[in-house]
């Protein structure tokens, strides 16, 4: 007598959710840079007006500058998706978008994408004078501390405006495309069929970045004396000599 019990395998296969295909779009070092860069800027911004956390502010500024150097080098020798030329190519499409808009073919998602690329490119451009002005003012080079403080504040405010614009544009584009566009910066993957655009994740390099960052910030934080600058150190030494 043959069994009449139906097989459960086809039913289970029919009800099991199919995994959505995803491609690797952003490698681990690029993602590590993005979040460490954001963390450094946010921390430096929060501690900017505090004498108590002056040492941490300076440390995060140095880390911010070091990450900028890494990004510039990686943008030259890294994978094609991380190249600075790729970012510039994305922004250069504004002229084409404007011509289509004048012809009545308006593409809002592409406009937002162009805006995001422009904000990132400007942020990288602003980062260098932000770091340099902070350093010159901190070491009191040629008595330019007061002037550099105003320059530093200007570039810091400009960078914050660009960060806010970048975040707002990501939120807007996520709504227009009905998916969270911040997720790939965490996972490195974006929905879509086909081969990975990034062939190697280079997780080892991201681990080295994290270790170097944590080691530098931790060591500098332990060594630093909050509220003390090279100029004030000189004043203290002079004061001790006077007392003697």
TrEMBL record:
Pfam families in the record: Ni_hydr_CYTB (PF01292)
Superkingdom to which the source organism belongs: Bacteria
Claim: Nucleus is one of the keywords in the record: no
Predominant location: membrane
Subcellular location: Cell membrane
Keywords: Cell membrane, Membrane, Transmembrane, Transmembrane helix
Lipid bilayer topology: Multi-pass membrane protein
Statement: the UniProt record of this protein carries the keyword Transmembrane helix: yes
Annotated transmembrane regions: 32-48, 60-77, 111-135, 155-176, 203-222
Coiled coil feature spans: none
Full protein name: Cytochrome b/b6 domain-containing protein
């Amino acid at each position: 007598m043959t069994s009449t019990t139906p097989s459960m395998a086809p039913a289970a296969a029919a009800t099991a959710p199919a995994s959505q295909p995803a491609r690797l779009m952003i490698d681990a070092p690029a993602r590590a840079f993005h979040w460490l860069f954001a963390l450094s800027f946010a921390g430096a911004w929060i501690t900017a007006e505090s004498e108590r956390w002056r040492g941490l502010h300076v440390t995060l500024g140095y880390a911010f500058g070091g990450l900028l150097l890494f990004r510039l080098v990686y943008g030259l020798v890294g994978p094609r998706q991380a190249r600075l030329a790729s970012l510039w190519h994305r922004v250069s499409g504004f002229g084409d978008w404007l011509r289509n808009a004048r012809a009545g073919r308006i593409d809002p998602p592409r406009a937002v994408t162009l805006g995001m690329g422009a904000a990132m490119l400007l942020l990288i451009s602003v980062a260098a004078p932000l770091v340099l002005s902070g350093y010159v003012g901190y070491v009191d080079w040629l008595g330019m501390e007061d002037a550099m403080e105003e320059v530093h504040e200007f570039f810091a405010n400009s960078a914050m405006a660009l960060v806010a614009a970048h975040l707002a544009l990501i939120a807007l584009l996520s709504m227009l495309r009905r998916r969270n566009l911040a997720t790939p910066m965490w996972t490195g993957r974006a929905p879509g069929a086909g081969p990975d655009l990034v062939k190697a994740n280079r997780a080892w390099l991201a681990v080295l970045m994290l270790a170097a960052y944590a080691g530098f910030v931790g060591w500098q934080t332990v060594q630093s004396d909050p509220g003390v600058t090279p100029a004030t150190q000189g004043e203290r030494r002079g004061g001790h000599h006077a007392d003697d």
